């Protein structure tokens, strides 16, 4: 086989492997929807828990946050959340201990697929983010 022919084959192999690598990288970088873990508020006693459900939640809707209240302490359980390009939002559960509140994110329109949703659980006295206390660590899910 001539040198010219060997070089042509080598160039074809390199070009093909570049296309395969770029294509694979594109597929690997896409994030699939993924529910997030439950997160508890901080402090000695776990009083509130939040969870993100991607696409379909137990209440049958789209990207949803659930906030659960576990303590009859006079405080509301509060989920605080955000994603890139959106300001922080809150979901308040003031229904009392042993209850859950579900809220569809994005004003009911949902969230663009593949967006990372960051959220935490807190407790609070009024429907104002400035009155939140004992927030847990932030965790994430993918819409």
CATH architecture of the largest domain: Sandwich
Largest beta sheet, briefly? 5 strands, antiparallel
Rg measurement, Å = 23 Å
Helix-strand sequence: HEEEEEEEEE
Number of strands: 9
Low-confidence stretches: 2-30
Domain count:
2
Structural overview:
This protein has 143 residues and is α+β, with helices and mostly antiparallel strands. The chain has 2 domains: 1-30; 39-142, Sandwich (Immunoglobulin-like), CATH 2.60.40.10. The chain is built from 1 helix and 9 strands. The strands form 2 sheets. Strands 4, 5, 7, 8 and 9 form a 5-stranded antiparallel beta sheet that branches. Strands 1-2-3-6 form a 4-stranded antiparallel beta sheet, with no helix packed on it. Strand 7 and strand 8 form a beta hairpin. The longest helix has 27 residues, at 3-29. The protein is globular, with a radius of gyration of 23 Å. The termini are far apart.
Write the layout of secondary structure elements.
Elements: H1 3-29, E1 39-40, E2 48-53, E3 64-69, E4 76-82, E5 89-93, E6 99-104, E7 116-124, E8 132-133, E9 139-142
In short:
With 143 residues, this protein is α+β, with helices and mostly antiparallel strands. Helices cover 19% and strands 33% of the residues.
């Amino acid at each position: 086989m001539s040198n010219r022919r060997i070089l042509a084959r080598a160039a074809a192999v390199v070009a093909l492997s570049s296309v395969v690598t770029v294509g694979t990288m594109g597929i690997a970088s896409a994030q699939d929807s993924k529910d997030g873990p439950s997160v508890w508020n901080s402090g000695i006693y776990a009083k509130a828990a939040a969870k993100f459900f991607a696409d379909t939640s137990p209440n049958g809707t789209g990207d949803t946050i659930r906030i659960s209240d576990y303590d009859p302490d006079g405080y509301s359980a509060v989920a605080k959340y955000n994603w890139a390009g959106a300001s922080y939002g809150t979901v308040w559960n003031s229904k009392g201990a042993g209850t859950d509140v579900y809220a569809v994110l994005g004003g009911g329109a949902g969230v663009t697929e593949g967006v990372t949703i960051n959220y935490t659980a807190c407790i609070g006295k009024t429907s104002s983010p400035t009155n939140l206390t004992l927030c847990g660590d932030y965790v994430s899910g993918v819409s």
